[in-house]
Amino acid sequence: MQTIPTRDFDLLPDLCDHFPNDVNVFETQFNSYGQHQVFCGQAVTVKCFEDNSVVKKLVGTPGQGKVIVVDGGASMRRALIGDMLAEEAIANGWAGVVINGCLRDAATINQMAIGVKALGTIPIKTDKRGLGDQDIDIRFAGVTVKPGDWVYADLNGVLISAKKLELLES
So which cofactors does this thing need (predicted)? Predict the structure, then answer.
């Protein structure tokens, strides 16, 4: 057995084929940003709406290879992450970010060593009201994500599993 590699290849189809009863795939079509098109790690969840205060605080903490999963209510009116927060996430060891919402600074983030999935882009920053929740169960696009679930992402989409998935070496 091997740990899932984080290089560019079609990981999700293989995971869906080998573990059909252990995966939940988001129904939405995320756009991919950053240099890491394939990433995985345990989920740290955030629920917020047009206020990235919790996300900003979280990227400043040790990520230990985990993935931040943000339910931003599918808002297309404010960006929940930009280049400065992405840079901080990289510096603190986060593997990636999945956003049910938007980001900004897309061209810059595309040059960064991180994987980000988002619904789209918008240049407008969020309001900072200190609102949002962390480490709670969140649900969007047909999938519930619990803190500690495993997140797997590639160009095919994003999936969630309650357990770490491993593929046999071929």
Answer: a divalent metal cation; Mg(2+)
**Within a domain: 149:** yes
88 or 11: which leads in pLDDT: 88
Question: Per the annotation, where are the binding residues for Mg(2+)?
Answer: 105
For 101-139, what is each residue's pLDDT tens digit? 999 999 999 999 999 999 999 999 998 999 999 999 999
**Is 166 a member of any domain?**
no
Q: Which domain holds residue 146?
A: 11-161
Partner residues linked to 161 by β-bridges: 150
Alpha-carbon distance 48 to 73, whole Å?
7
Task: Pick out the residues of the known binding site.
Answer: 82-85, 104-105
- List residues forming the annotated binding site for substrate: 82-85, 104
Asked, for residue 170, whether it belongs to a domain, the answer is: no
Q: Is residue 63 part of a domain?
A: yes
Residue-level pLDDT at 9: 77
**pLDDT, average across residues 53-67:** 98
What pLDDT shows up at residue 166? 86
Cα gap 110→87, rounded to integer Å? 11
Q: How many domains, the chain?
A: 1
